[in-house]
Amino acid sequence: MVWQIRSRARTVMSRMAVLSSSSIYGDSFHCSPFSGLTNSFVGFSRNWANPNATQWSKNMESHLRLLPSVKRNQISRLKASSCSLGLAQELTSYKVENMGKTDGDQDLFAEMKQRFLSFKKHKYLEDLEHFQALAEAQYPKFMVIACADSRVCPSNILGFQPGEAFMIRNVANLVPPLEHGPSETNAALEFAVNTLEVENILVIGHSTCGGIQALMSMQDDVDSSFLEKWVINGKSAKLRAKAEAAHSSFDQQCRHCEKESINRSLLNLLTYPWIRERVRKELLSIHGGYYDFLNCSFEKWTLDLKGSSIEGGRYSFKDQAFWY
């Protein structure tokens, strides 16, 4: 009788190691609430009773721990003491899934896949010559600096097509001055201006900017977090907004700073000699833009170099326009 039990235990282990169905949750099996499933697995009756069943379960758990890690992760640690052999009978009705991803994640990527395939069919393949040319080189007319905010996508708002804009997005669409040292933003600027020779730099801010709210809420000289260390680049815009809108509400001060920080970034662009020189030679134009998604309007302006001063923090505009 003992050798029969051992033989059947080995059969169970062998089948479970290659089992393509499981109900794994976390690091253990859960007994299924269903009762109308087959009980023909390895020939055991659902109500089969044996005084050695508890010891058999412990032996099973001990053997499972010796399996290779991949199989052990699929099977987890079998809690046969609570589920008994009825678990093995019901496992055959479950399909092995990648438990590292939730159904929601899979749905999101399934939708993303359809968007990609739609892009390929309706844009890429219909304009194949253009995209093949882009694979060889890019000649964008614009360098766009926009906020990382998920609600503000320049390509979606302004209709930039592949190859039209070299783009970088950061918190609060800030351009740090040259003296603040290297950053991802000025590295992208250097490549766009000196290598790609873009003709326009467009800094786009927006309403209800969380980065500007963080800047306006900061205590003086406090920069303990990564966010604070970054938005401190807009400190001069904050000081000016606080001074000019001193009697306004916090929200109104933030809105003032949202636009002021754009203008300050335009001046900061001029601290880079290779940008200032191209602007002076009229090979490059610097623009500001403000997107208000509360009423879906866009404001655009161009920095006038003649009336602007880096040292004095003065700026002058031309070609200002409102799109609404």
Describe this structure in words.
This protein has 324 residues and is α/β, with parallel strands linked by helices. The chain contains 14 helices and eight strands. The chain has helices at residues 2-17, 53-64, 69-75, 80-83, 86-90, 103-124, 128-136, 154-158, 184-195, 210-217, 226-231, 235-244, 250-269, 273-280, and strands spanning 24-25, 28-29, 142-147, 165-170, 200-206, 285-292, 297-309, 314-323. The strands form two sheets. It has a six-stranded mixed beta sheet. Strands 1-2 form a two-stranded antiparallel sheet. Strand 1 and strand 2 form a beta hairpin. The protein is globular and about 55 Å long. The termini are far apart.
Topology diagram in text:
Blueprint: H1 2-17, E1 24-25, E2 28-29, H2 53-64, H3 69-75, H4 80-83, H5 86-90, H6 103-124, H7 128-136, E3 142-147, H8 154-158, E4 165-170, H9 184-195, E5 200-206, H10 210-217, H11 226-231, H12 235-244, H13 250-269, H14 273-280, E6 285-292, E7 297-309, E8 314-323
Parallel strand pairs: 3-4, 3-5, 5-6
Antiparallel strand pairs: 1-2, 6-7, 7-8
Helix pairs in contact: 1-2, 12-13
Question: What does this entry show, briefly?
Answer:
This protein has a six-stranded mixed beta sheet with strand order 4-3-5-6-7-8. The protein is built from 14 helices and eight strands.
